[in-house]
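Re: export button greyed out
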Amino acid sequence: MVLVAGTTAIDTIQTPDSAPRECIGGSAVHFAYAAALFGPVRIVSIAGDDFPPDALRRLEARGIDTAGIRIAPGKTFRWSGKYLADMDHRETLATDLNVAASWEPEVPPAWSDTRVVFLANGSPRFQRAVMAQVAAPDIVVCDTMDYWIESERAELDALLREVDGILMNEDEIRMYTGEASSIRAAQNLLSLGPEFIIVKKGAHGALLATQWGVDALPAYPVARVCDPTGAGDSFAGGFLGYLGAAPSIRDRETLKRALARAACVASFNVEDFGAARLESLTAEEFQHRVREYARMLSIG
Amino acid sequence: MVLVAGTTAIDTIQTPDSAPRECIGGSAVHFAYAAALFGPVRIVSIAGDDFPPDALRRLEARGIDTAGIRIAPGKTFRWSGKYLADMDHRETLATDLNVAASWEPEVPPAWSDTRVVFLANGSPRFQRAVMAQVAAPDIVVCDTMDYWIESERAELDALLREVDGILMNEDEIRMYTGEASSIRAAQNLLSLGPEFIIVKKGAHGALLATQWGVDALPAYPVARVCDPTGAGDSFAGGFLGYLGAAPSIRDRETLKRALARAACVASFNVEDFGAARLESLTAEEFQHRVREYARMLSIG
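Workaround output, generated via the alternate export path:
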């Protein structure tokens, strides 16, 4: 059983090939669709009373428990952005926190037995508050962003001493550590507490740093990236979804296999707007891609 | 038997951690040391009478035939550059062509039977002149750079119709094709003639585009990059050296295996200044890294 605490959102996404399009999104939604490929998922989040009930039903249809999404009077969190031609860079046009501004995350008491927890990007204070509401998790992984690294450094340092793993992108981990090399930056962060550091490099794949060394895996090559929104959260969902269903967690091979699933899920995420591709993805399609990815990486 | 036509140089290299250092370099030298891991190599190049005879002896000691290096009166080609903190970007401080300015490449007649040919970065007119002097090669691969894409486009287009493969970095292939996606850019170039396109992404690995699809492989993770000079040429040397010794060439698996060897050789190249690490590299050290790399990519 995997739990994610993060945002549910209504995103307005503009790409070089398309007019602005409104999508159900948010870190918790992308994560949950990805992790649901491996087993049941629980969402802790907040949405406004404008959040479409149908969106909740579609999540439930994939085995995602939405009982932890509090529906508050007001508007759902909204993000609006525009991707540049290379699809690697984007411009945020607007961020309206709306009901998320006054959110204090509450894990339903019946969910305090969850074993695998993902603390999606958010204030480290909130992330620690979620963690405190889960009794004895096997594994807790967090995300963060430049804003928290700059404004809540001490709280983030404290969080890092408590979690098992963290995901960051290259800019974030370089900012956090002051190291120009992502590999050395990840090794550096390991010494602060977590058992593993994942550096997300988008179209260039990811790094996994553990006490056993540094592993690099490429992204699954996607010729037509439609919309990268939520790719990092779906990556985290693939990673923790796989770990949630794995017999053991704390070994290099299992973590690497989880990273490979993460890369495959994320490659689907970018093929359509929002989480649309993940919503319709079948177990067969996913397994087929994992096999293709493994074949690509077979160089013996 | 593998032949490379390219530069021999005296490089002056400055890195964030070190004062300027003088190294024997040039595309042909880095390529040759890498390809020599797999079998004999022939160099077609030009050097000045200041080129240290000891540098030639050290090449010969690795099974590299230097009979095609013409020693001309005057100074050897010199390049001087400075790497920035991220080691991905560099500033060229000076380029002095010296004797290379009046070079007309000549393949020794006895070498016209060479089966595997690498046309290192240079004027596409010279690259075609070298090609014309090899009777019936099995495979010809070229490199190029932004300068030729901008100034000799027609000649480069003609070269592309004649070669079997080309290596480019991401900026170059995007400039050449006008495509923002490296994957689509590579697919696009395939339609101009070559059987395969390799996109070199430095620390992010490489892409291989063929009629059978696009494969991505990561770089072997190196925590302490000492000097990236010549990494791309050593990558090409590992790739073509492997193909020169392979029983068949024109299938996806062999090309991918060659790409994996290329990644491993390049990871050694960056561990010391110039080609120093490649000069001392043993077959055992290399095979050990290839096995480590294969294990890293095993995600079944």
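Chain A has one domain: 2-296. The button fix ships in the next patch.
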